[in-house]
Amino acid sequence: MRELRLDEFTDREGETFELLLGGESVPLTLAKVQPLPPSGREAGAFVLEWRGPVDPVLPQAIYNLRQGEDDFEIFIVPLRQDGEGVRYEAIFN
User: Is 1's pLDDT higher than 80?
Assistant: First the structure.
């Protein structure tokens, strides 16, 4: 798994990525990018918050995300579900 950097996501809020789930894809929209205080992590410390559809609710796990030619693995954790969908979080610290 490659080390993701804060600058890869800074200007991408509102963009939709495909989470690959078996033979299907689930759209996740990057809802929030939040820098964290320096942690010593070379690629920067930050939080990504994603918004997905109401169904399916994905368990915490490592998933493959793709947008165009950009393809990466990310560990996401579900935060909450509301009428608009499910919020997920990934922390890089």
Answer: no
70-82 and 85-92 as β-strands: parallel, antiparallel, unpaired? antiparallel
Write the DSSP assignment of 12-74 as a string of letters: -TT-EEEEEETTEEEEEEEEEEEE----S-TT--EEEEEEE-SSSPPPSEEEEEEETTEEEEE
pTM of the model: 0.91
Q: Are 92 and 72 in contact (CB under 8 A)?
A: no
- Express each pLDDT in 36-65 by its tens digit: 999 988 888 999 999 999 999 999 999 999
- Alpha-carbon distances of 44 from 6, 35, 36, 48, 89, rounded to whole Å: 6, 8, 8, 12, 16
3-state secondary structure of 9: coil
Give the single-character DSSP code of 8: G
Measured CA to CA, the distance from residue 54 to residue 52 in angstroms comes to: 7
